[in-house]
Specification:
The protein is α/β, with parallel strands linked by helices and 351 residues long. It is built from 11 helices and 14 strands. The model has no long low-confidence stretch (mean pLDDT 92).
């Protein structure tokens, strides 16, 4: 049973379908009440017990007393004038804040969620990590970012990327529980094939994830073609060599049959040369993969600059010559604190 952040209370929205049924029977109710409760939380996605009108008042009162009901509060929402992308800042029960992004694509609506408050990975080009890690998010706190956005927009979300603030593999148990809840046929029922989890390369947990029997997409934030350059950009490379991280991706594909995504942020004059492209192609040769080139988001705390368009195109062409499937990420919401973690940092500095 999932303990909430309030000792002695159950985190009700983090419970699986079966756990919810079992918990309700411990309160002396029939299991069908658990089914109704689960539907209110994960199908109707209501923000509180008050809306659960077909549950007896006595049961609702008991649930209020014995459980915590995660419902994020919207603090801020920036809407891009360019493409309608929405960047949300949500307040958690303990006063911390997290960011999420809502993007509209032709193939459906996508939400990018955060998995931690802050991050301890220290990647040099990322704003999310500048204040370190404060805490992990619970499964329900990750989930309710999506539910809150659906309530706010009145639109269904069909694709989810765990690519916001935090390192998902550093919050492994809550991440896996979140994925199972999100894809549960009794609840939100989002296909696992429409869920992507991005990691900077915590190798043991990448290998664990390969054995969970899930059908999600794994994305490795690679950002360098060799160990030396990766060490400059990503402190995680001190613990896990670049070849270990890439081998874990090979293992993930072997276990799941799911194509790997390699995220590669292009930093002007750092990792964007033709030689870098050649080394990258050699590093990932033979893996069923897709490379996502990302023009780096400049952040004021670092001196990194975006590669120019000609260099980006040349890098892409070089990879394609080696037979690698590659795209340049379309920049969504460039006019609304584009870098991950920026909205949260601005809010913190103002409070």
């Amino acid at each position: 049973m999932e303990e909430s952040r309030n000792p002695g209370k159950i985190d009700i929205k983090s419970l699986t379908y079966q756990e919810t049924l079992e918990y309700v029977t411990t309160l002396g109710e029939k299991s069908f009440r658990g089914k109704q409760l689960y539907e209110w939380m994960h199908v109707h996605k209501v923000p509180s017990y008050e809306e659960m009108t077909n549950l007896p008042k006595k049961l609702r009162e008991e649930l209020k007393e014995k459980t915590t009901y995660t419902s994020l509060k919207k603090v801020d929402c920036q809407i891009s004038k360019e493409d309608g992308t929405r960047k949300y800042l949500f307040a958690l029960e303990d006063g911390n804040v997290v960011e999420s992004v809502f993007m509209r694509y032709k193939h459906g609506n996508s939400v990018c969620v955060s998995s931690q408050v802050g991050c301890r990975m220290g990647c040099r080009f990322c704003a999310s990590t500048l204040d370190g890690l404060l805490r992990n998010l619970t499964a329900s706190e990750i989930l309710d970012q999506i539910y809150s956005i659906e309530r706010d927009t009145g639109e269904r979300v069909s694709n989810v990327v765990v690519m916001g603030t935090g390192e998902p593999m550093d919050n492994y148990d809550n991440l896996v529980r979140f994925i199972r809840l999100l894809s549960d046929e009794h609840g939100a029922d989002i296909s696992q094939r429409n869920i992507t989890v991005s990691t900077c390369g915590i190798v043991p947990n990448m290998r664990r994830l390969a054995e969970e029997g899930l059908q999600i997409t794994l994305a490795l934030s690679l950002h360098a073609p060799n160990q030396e350059k990766r060490l400059e950009l990503m402190p995680v490379a001190n613990k896990y060599h670049i070849t270990e991280a890439v081998d874990a991706c090979r293992y993930y594909f072997e276990q799941t049959g799911r194509r790997i995504t390699f995220e590669y942020s292009l930093v002007g004059g750092v990792n964007d040369s033709q030689q870098d492209a050649k080394e990258l192609a050699e590093l990932i040769r033979g893996i069923n993969c897709h490379v996502n080139l990302i023009p780096v988001n400049p952040i004021k705390e670092r001196s990194y600059i975006q590669s120019n368009r000609t260099v980006i195109e040349a890098f892409k062409n070089k990879l394609e010559k080696y037979g690698i499937n590659v795209t340049i990420r379309r920049e969504m919401g460039r006019d609304i604190d584009g870098a991950c973690g920026q909205l949260r940092r601005k809010h913190i500095s103002m409070t």
